[in-house]
Specification:
This protein has 470 residues and is α+β, with helices and mostly antiparallel strands. It has 9 helices and 25 strands.
Length: 470
């Protein structure tokens, strides 16, 4: 028996011949196979139905058109388009159900208002009351579904925050990306930055002028922290050491700043190219005093020292390294007091409590550990499961979270997102943001951020308005 040749016979070849009958008595089976092939081809062309209607071509002519796609690729596309179509159908059905629920609730509210006040209220008053009830219901629905929306839907929503986030000052002078930023805790209050260009710089917050340059490390400077009561800085480096060095600065007279950078925190932004880097051709740090020798060098690690911090009182310091250990040093003698072991992979950060002898270390083994040194005879440790690498700064019950996508988002302590710092071609970071630091008492800038666009930025966040919008 001779079978009509079509597109699917030419593409599938011997696979079709295997399923075709060889006896004339099985024509019905062949007809069923042909109908199955037709339904398969129709499902492929569902997205092109409008084109078929416009051209007015018969279906048989469209089936006969040759395709350049292999059968396996076409089958994969068919399956993917089918999945997409099913997702849209589910969303459409869900949307219809939600609309019906809202209409039912609106009708119920209107009926209840008429039953209670129908004998006393005029038609206009009843309409006003029903409209007010509907508005309240709408607001409740929005509040309820806002908290339970999926990640896909929530990623498209725009923030309604009206808190002012003002870019006040840019600190430009490093020759490479900036890993860390910190604010001095004693007078005079200065800003410190640690960079991959092997230097740490101290800045005047008001003028943006470089005051001191530290160049004692021979590797990337990964972190910087200020002594709680003295003019001392602690820096950690890729040269496997941590340095303690002294500085003495005199703040320049601040100049008045024009209020031209005010912008509302929000989700809208203007994308900028990664090539739009700050102009640092002129080495602004060459004019400031340079410190090349530390007071104390803390040595004991066998790998990169990724972070360091002062314990309360400033008599001891803790360092975290890629050799999977954190070390506790005596600042005056530079001797190793304790070696904190237990992490299975490289450490990524360490920090201390401002008033208690507590240390937190984080690692790429997805754990962070809380070390308790309050009792000299007992050094307890608690292990928690967490992120592999994160750097956040908490101030006035607000968390500033830097992101690799150039964003800095603000959250409250319960995890609710409050706002996002402006990010556009004119202001904000142009590459990944590495660190953030609050300075709650400074009248000009209360938040600082730094990143791999080789600049640090000082922001003024209207915290009362931000919390009020929550």
């Amino acid at each position: 028996m001779e079978y009509p040749k079509n597109l699917f016979q030419e593409r599938l070849g011997h696979h079709l011949l295997e399923v075709m009958p060889t006896e004339s008595g099985s024509c019905s089976t062949a007809r069923q196979a042909k109908q199955k092939r037709k339904s398969h081809s129709l499902s492929i062309r569902r997205t092109n139905s409008s084109e078929q209607e416009r051209t007015g071509l018969p279906r048989e002519m469209l089936e006969g058109q040759d395709s350049k796609l292999p059968s396996s690729v076409r089958s994969t596309l068919l399956e993917l388009f089918g999945q997409i179509e099913r997702e849209f159908e589910n969303l459409y059905i869900e949307n219809l159900e939600l609309r019906r629920e809202i209409e039912t609730l609106n009708e119920r509210l209107a009926a209840e208002g008429q039953a209670i006040d129908g004998a006393e209220l005029s038609k206009g008053q009843l309409k006003t009351k029903a409209s007010h009830s509907t508005s309240q219901l709408s607001q409740k629905l929005k509040t309820t579904y806002k908290a339970s929306t999926s990640k896909i839907v929530s990623s498209f929503k725009t923030t309604t925050s009206r808190a002012v986030c003002q870019l006040v000052k840019e600190y430009i002078g490093h020759r490479d990306g900036i890993w860390d930023v910190s604010v001095a805790r004693t007078q005079p209050v200065v800003l410190g930055t640690a960079s991959a260009d092997h230097t740490a710089l101290l800045w005047s917050i008001e003028t943006g002028r470089c005051l001191v340059k530290y160049s004692g490390h021979v590797g990337s400077v990964n972190s910087i922290k200020f002594h709680p009561s003295e003019q001392l800085a602690l820096t950690a480096s890729g040269d496997q050491t941590a340095h303690i060095w002294s500085y003495a600065v005199q703040l320049p007279t601040p100049q008045p700043i024009a209020d031209t950078t005010q912008q509302i925190c929000g989700e809208d932004e203007v994308e900028c190219s990664d090539k739009d880097e700050p102009d640092v051709d002129a080495d602004v740090s060459s004019d400031c005093p340079t410190i090349r020798v530390p007071l104390t060098s803390l040595k004991s690690h066998q790998g990169v020292v990724i972070a360091a911090d002062w314990l309360v009182g400033g008599k001891q310091a803790v360092t975290a390294s890629w050799d999977r250990t954190a070390n506790l040093f005596d600042v005056e003698t530079a001797e190793l007091v304790h070696s904190l072991t237990g992490h299975d992979q490289e450490l990524t950060h360490c920090c201390t409590h401002p008033t208690q002898r507590l240390v937190v270390t984080s690692s790429r083994d997805t754990t962070f550990r809380l070390w308790d040194f309050r009792d000299p005879s007992i050094h307890s440790v608690n292990v928690f499961q967490g992120h592999t690498e994160i750097n956040v700064c908490v101030g006035q019950k607000i968390i500033a979270l830097p992101h690799d996508n150039r964003q800095v988002r603000l959250f409250d302590m319960s995890g609710v997102r409050l706002a996002r710092l402006p990010r556009s071609s004119r202001q904000g970071h142009r590459r990944m943001v590495c660190c953030s630091a609050w300075s709650e008492d400074h009248p000009m800038c209360n938040l600082f951020t730094c990143g791999f666009d080789r600049q640090a930025i000082g922001w003024n966040i209207n915290i009362p308005a931000l919390l009020q919008e929550k």
